[in-house]
Amino acid sequence: MEGSGDPGDPGDPAARWKRHIVRQLRQRDRTQKALFLELVPAYNRLLEKAELLARFSEKLQPEPNDVTPSVHQGPWEKESDQGLSPAALRVKWQEEAEALRLVCGEMAYQVVEKNKTLSTLKSQLEERQSRLAALQARVEQLEEARAKEAGQVHARCALNEEQRAAYEALRARVGHQEAALRGLEEEACDLLERLVQQKARAAAERNLRNERRERAKQARVSQELKKAAKRTVSISESPDTLGDGIREEAETLVLAPRPGSLESEAGEKWKRPFRSASATSLTVSRCVDVVKGLLDFKKRRGHSIGGVPEQRYQSIPVCVTARLPTQAQDVLDAHLSEVSAVRFGPNSSLLATGGADRLILLWNVVGGRLKANQTLEGAGGSITSVDFDPSGSQLLAATYNKAAQLWKVGEAQSKETLSGHTDKVTAAKFKLTRHQAVTGSRDRTVKEWDLCRVYCSRTINVLSYCNDVVCGDHVIISGHNDQKIRFWDSRGPHCTQVIPVQGRVTSLSLSHDQLHLLSCSRDDTLKVIDLRVSNIRQVFRADGFKCGSDWTKAVFSPDRSYALAGSWDGALYIWDVDTGKLESSLRGPHSAAINAVAWCYSGSHVVSVDQARKVVLWH
């Protein structure tokens, strides 16, 4: 059977533990025998003496008739026992025997107790020996584990040394590559700066050529107008011919203005003799309408990122003087929930509103009323901002769905989705062309978009949330949660200027001449910034005016004469930009905080929207 062997074999485990037991038993016998080496002989001598005394006592018992024996002292008798009678000696011996028996009993009891103690100590010794054996086995196991761990530590130390050497090599390599990268970046910055300078020079040359061409054109028109002014027109002249003359003179009034009011010049021209009677009824507004019809043109503006020439739509100053609103003309519960965005189209008759119900509603302003036109669907989240392109054919909306949606006016479904932000998009605005847009988000980025190819052409990283953006010719202006307004050059990679304001910026509005910026902030003030000197020109405050949210929108009037904003209590506040005084405050249909306001480009209507679903048209 496997594992069995000769018990006598010294190498056999069974023989080893048997020898160990024998040695332990011998050691125990020697230890216990040493304790009783003196006790057992003494006990044996005591027993012998007791027997001897018992025999002598039997021999010395006198018979009744015997004469008292002579005193004879044996060798075992003490001198003190001489003279005692046998009876006394017997009593004495009996007492000693009794004492010896008592001593023997005590010693026997002690022997029993010692045996018990010995057995207890023996069991304890066996237990401790078993524990010692277990501990020795445990120590052997731990020694083996320690040796194994030491081997692993040695191997890992060697591996760490190899990895450290590899890390040092990689670090040196990265240092060389970083130095090369810095050199390339510096070279790229130099190239970019040179490119920007070349483009600036080319733009200056183009502007100079355009200016010369415009001056030549104006001079030519002025000469033609002088010739036309000298020509005598009869009453029998056809209306078409008269209309052409009126158009030429109106065009001259816009392109080459002279000192003095437009109205006085028009009046002087039509007071001359031999004019048609119908010409005397021509007013300034009619001249503006004619000019608007004649000068509805598109001006070339550079090239897009893709290299395809794009169109810039020149805004026509159709508003001579904005009219202050005085009363509410139409009140509608337009949306299913809070309305947060409103915007007029370029023609002033089309209005767009957006809200938390993920819908954009288009309205026509007809006879002082809002008439539903169309509902645009497809937004993935709440609408935060809406904007028309300069032609009025497209609409862009910012949503809480981390994207901006693009619609074509007249189509109900979204045309494109501008996705790329990682948080809510708070602002989406067209640039001065229908093919470029800018979005701002709570992910601390501002993105420029090429709408022809629907991709992000540039991402600007900012240190704070972006709440609103506006765009100029070559500048992007963003308002942020860290109480700062930042300016970015579309042709360069860096921030060109930072203007701090008090309170979180909630909205921005750029005047049509791009010379003034209106900001609204949570410190319950509106500020007018003169962009020519980059300084705050006016600060508007009013008793009772308070921003209702982080997305409260304020706007300029089309002629930049007034600033308009809505308050938390549903009132509209209008300030005069030139004097800085509160012009008027309107209270009426709104019972909740006003989120946004819009002033149409013709200056005749104002629309406000609030958190209670209301859209109000003011006249």
Automatic annotation (TrEMBL):
SUPFAM superfamilies: WD40 repeat-like. One of its GO terms (biological process) is autophagosome assembly. It is found in: Cytoplasm, Cytosol. Residues 118-221 form a coiled coil. May play a role in regulating epithelial homeostasis in an ATG16L1-dependent manner. Residues 62-83 are annotated as: Disordered. Residues 20-207 form the Autophagy-related protein domain. PROSITE patterns: WD_REPEATS_1, WD_REPEATS_2, WD_REPEATS_REGION. WD repeats lie at residues 332-373, 376-417, 418-451, 556-585. Keywords: Coiled coil, Cytoplasm, Protein transport, Repeat, Transport, WD repeat. Its main location: cytoplasm. GO terms for cellular component: Atg12-Atg5-Atg16 complex; cytosol; nucleoplasm; phagophore assembly site membrane. It holds the Pfam family ATG16. InterPro entries: ATG16, Autophagy-rel_prot_16_dom, WD40/YVTN_repeat-like_dom_sf, WD40_PAC1, WD40_repeat_CS, WD40_repeat_dom_sf, WD40_rpt. This is Protein Atg16l2. Belongs to the WD repeat ATG16 family. PANTHER family: AUTOPHAGY PROTEIN 16-LIKE, PROTEIN ATG16L2.
